[in-house]
């Protein structure tokens, strides 16, 4: 039977705090791991500075449906709320 790769949480305390606030498991894990890697600002505060193509790639990576029909501001909103 093949082994499946289990995602690892790099900052469990942050993850648990986000889950307690009602965030999804996926979003809490993504934020906790981004904080551990020191890239959290890239994802949240500087979205306005990124190109639409970059935002589309980000939306694809996190599984946002209908992303190609969205404007840049709609993409930013969806990424922030995902």
From TrEMBL:
InterPro entries, per the entry: DUF7218 (IPR055642), Rho_N_sf (IPR036269)
Superkingdom classification of source: Bacteria
Region ranges (Disordered): 1-52
Basic and acidic residues: bias regions: 10-29, 40-52
Official protein name in the record: Rho termination factor, N-terminal domain
């Amino acid at each position: 039977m093949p082994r499946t790769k289990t995602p690892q949480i790099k900052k469990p305390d942050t993850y648990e705090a986000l889950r307690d606030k009602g965030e999804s498991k996926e979003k809490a894990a993504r934020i906790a791991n981004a904080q551990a890697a020191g890239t959290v600002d890239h994802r949240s505060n500087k979205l306005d500075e990124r190109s639409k193509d970059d935002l589309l790639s980000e939306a694809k990576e996190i599984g946002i449906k209908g992303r190609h029909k969205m404007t840049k501001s709609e993409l930013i909103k969806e990424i922030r709320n995902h």
